[in-house]
Structure formats: structure tokens, C-alpha cells
């Protein structure tokens, strides 16, 4: 840190003054974070320089293991069993506080600090370690997701069936009750790009139990299933229990937490989203997150209305009008019809800049967004009633111009040049570093690469390096990019991986017990000026499965404090050296224990 000096102060005096002030500021900020104290507002820290300050503290002559950050031992009580499926930012207990128009109550509404829970979320009575992949795609333990409503309502459509102690997933859906395989086969006939690696990333809006996304995994397409927490009971929890990528979310008044041009394909199978209402603003959001040249697939009303309308309790005239309105709206957004057969219709987002240039007139709706609208801003950002025009300088970022999978994983995408310091060489170095680290992680945590670990989260990735290093293992990685850090998430998607923006001062958009492995690198140092370590660790405990693992790679300075809190959460932890065997940085390897709420009298 630089301090302003008097004109008559000597260079040596300034040097002597800077050192203690720097250490004092760092100490105060570190203690305020780890002890839940004051918010550090020092300008350099707010600009993200806490990492450098932490590095200074660790490398200073005074640093040793003896003066590492220490906190008093702590224990956390159990939450009530009523909180076994607690999702803090989408909590049904708080829905009445928010409006019902456009389903805004289903969006993220996190509790204020004074309402945050400081307890451990218990598993359901009779919880068992999840069935391992790939068998988990076909079945899961009923007691792990004990929801009867969705079973009673959707079993006739073959979403799932309860048999003994298990839920079985026959692979059906509302629009494909005879099986998802035949449904996807027809889709691939309509979209040949699904067969050759051109289409790699997809989003399924209103995913049900994620059978569509689960089927596509075997076809080399990585699908992120999206659904709100609503009366369908735990669609996302079912998906993750099966080992299929999923996240809580709803298209309502705010953008989804993804950058523009993220997905090669978007899918809606009778997802009940009113696409043509509110000026088509929900379609505009699909347009934003869909890559130029990408495909939007719709099955359900009003597609194939001539043969389906009677089962939809409507008239043929109403459905014909609905389809015409939908087609007009899609055309106005530079979508073109691509293929239609039976219950499936496909549109393609245009890459032709000429189409978007026609949307600039004063009386055009929807018009193209002006330069003040940031296309990638997507963390609590309101939906915009305008069309995001493709960037003319990007020549190799549309579907069809990107390298095909799996080649695209290792080729630097164009959008890496938008990242400060980003380049092809930077990506190559990052990948090389994470390959070495991933090999070391497998030595200190041999479960990585086996069927014991399926759902993985990299809590603060840059380019998705860990996910790339583990690409051949039977797992998938949710790549999380901080909403306060450099915007590297477009690069993650361009490489053919999936992820989301998030702020770790808040709860993540998922159910409890949904990840097998959580990995973080320097997160507590990077976010210490904003977030309380206690709450971040409690959130990690909420989303980590019992007997799941955490790899916490941090400065040695904070390791003891982290381990103290982890023990208070009933985790078993031990320290390991990094691959370089240095002293400045260590890896805390933790495993969450399986326990049951005391009031249930359950034992393992």
C-alpha cells in the first residue's frame, strides 16, 4: 500500500512507515473477517488487493507457523429437521414477502445477515450415501429425496416411479412418456450438429427430473438443467441426486446467472414458460444466453397443436393463434425456423449481422440493445426488453465456427482477449498448472477419478482449468466465477464446459447434499474483505453430501482458522503439502461425516 508523505520526509522514513501500516491494516481486516467483525473499507482491499496483502504477510520476515491466524474452537448446533431441504435464497417460508406477478417470489431472495442460520442442516431420516454413477442415473434412494407429490403427479408420465426403497427413473417425460432415447434420436435427426461435436453445451429450462440432460451425457453434450423450487418438489435435487448437472433458477424479472452466448442449444419440453407474454422478454433472455447459430428446441404447446389441442383443454383456433404469435416473435428476434417433426420444433439464432441491423429503427420492437447494456452482466441484473446483437469482431464464436468437441476444450477462444491479461499462452500455462495439481489431488484424495465422486464444484475457477484436467474422469464440474472477479465465465463456456456466476457472501442456488467434492483456491483470501468465513464454510457444509470431500487450497496463514471451524462442523480434516511442497500454501483435505438429527433417534 502507498501512503501519502510530507514533502520533507526522507525516502528511508517513508519505507519505515509503510511496513508497519501495511501489516496493521492487513491484520485488522483479516481479524474483522474471520471473527465476524467490521467491514474493511481500505481502498486497495476493495480493489481486490487482499491477495497481495496476504502474500506480504506470509512472506514477511516475521511470519512463521506460530503466528498464523488463530481463532477459538467453535461448535455448531443442528438445525431443526424441518430444514433438511433448506435453500436459503429460495426458501418457501419467505415467499409471502415477495410478489407473485411473473413469479418473482421464486427468484433469489437471500435472508439478511441477522436472519442467517448458524446451524448444520440435517439429512432426512434414513438418508444413505447416494447410489454411485452411472447406476444413479437410473435410480436413487427414496429417503434421500423423500418427495411423494411429484411421484403421484408424474408417475403416469414415467418421470419416476417409487419401488420399495428406491425411486426409479424410466426416462420418460410429459412430451416423451415412451422414453427420452427415442425423443433425442428424433431431435438428432432434425439437428445433425448434435452428432458430430458441433453442439456441446445445452440448457434445459423446466427440466423435470433431468432425463433429457441425462441422456445427452452419453452423446457428448453437457446439459445444465434449470428449474425453480416450486410445487414440482425438488426437480433440481432429483437431477443432482442422479449425478446430472443442474441448478436452481427461473426466468422471471432477472437475467439467468450466465454470460451472453453461453449455450449451443436451449430446450423446453412443456416447461410452462409463457414465451409470448410480457413482450417476449423470456425469449429475449434465451436469445441472450444462446450462442449465435445456436438452436432453440420446443416441444409441447403450441407445437403439433392439430393433434394435441384436445389434451391441452384448449381449442384449435387458440393454439393456431399462439403458434403464429410465437413464430412472429421469434422472427423479430432473428430466429429462423430450422426443422419441425411431430412434437418437436427447432429454431436457429441467426449469426447474420444484417438481420440485427434491421432492428435499430425507432418503431421496431424488440430493438437491439444500445451500448449501455452490458450483455454479460448477469448477477441480479434485470431482464432487458431488447435484442443482444452478436459482436462483429468475434469470427469464431458461433455454433459451426467454434472448433468441435473435444478439440474446443484446448483451443483458446476469442473471448479470452476480453479478460485482463488473457491470451492463448495464459490459457496454456493455466491448463498445464492444473494438470499437475489434479494429479497431486488424486494422490492426496484417491477417490477422485473413481465412482465415489460424481458432482464436483470448483468454487472460484478462472478458465475451468481443474475441470479440463479432470475431463476424462467419470465426473462433471460446476465452474463458479465470482460476480466480483474478472469475467472469465465466457471462456469457460467457449471451451465446452458449464458454470455460473455467484457471490459467496450468499448461499448457492442448490439443495442441500448435492455435491461430492468442493474445491477452492484462495477464496477466503480473495473475498475476506466482503464475506464472513464462517458463513462460507457453513454453506459448503449445506451443499456437500455426507461423506463428501472438500479440498481447500489456501495460504498457511489461514489454515488453522479454517480447520477450527471445519471441526466445529463435524468434518474430519488434515493438512497436506502442495505439489511444490512449499510452506506459504497448504491444502486442507476434509471429509464431511454422516450424522443424523438427534431428535430422530436415527443411527447409521
Overview of the molecule:
The chain crosses the membrane at residues 21-39. This protein is an alpha/beta fold. The chain has helices at residues 11-34, 43-59, 149-154, 180-190, 211-217, 235-241, 281-289, 305-308, 316-332, 353-357, 424-444, 465-469, 489-494, 523-527, 533-543, 556-568; strands at residues 139-141, 161-163, 166-168, 201-205, 222-227, 246-248, 263-269, 290-299, 335-341, 344-349, 455-458, 476-482, 499-502, 515-521, 544-555, 571-577, 585-592. Among the domains are: 177-359, Vaccinia Virus protein VP39 (Rossmann fold); 406-592, 3-Layer(aba) Sandwich (Rossmann fold). It contains 16 helices and 17 strands. The strands form 3 sheets. The chain has a 7-stranded mixed sheet, sandwiched between helices. The longest helix has 24 residues, at 11-34. The model is unreliable at 1-64 (pLDDT under 50).
CATH architecture of the domain at 406-592: 3-Layer(aba) Sandwich
3D shape = globular
Provide the gyration radius in Å: 25 Å
Reported for the largest beta sheet, the result is: 7 strands, mixed
Strand order of the largest sheet: 6-5-4-7-8-10-9
Briefly, what CATH class of the domain at 406-592?
Alpha Beta
Total count of strands: 17
Class from helix and strand fractions = alpha/beta
Instruction: Compute the separation of the termini in Å.
Output: 53 Å
Helix fraction bin: 25-40%
Percentage of residues in DSSP E strands: 15-25%
Protein name: Methyltransferase
EC number: 2.1.1.-
Transmembrane segments: 21-39
InterPro entries: Put_SAM_MeTrfase, SAM-dependent_MTases_sf
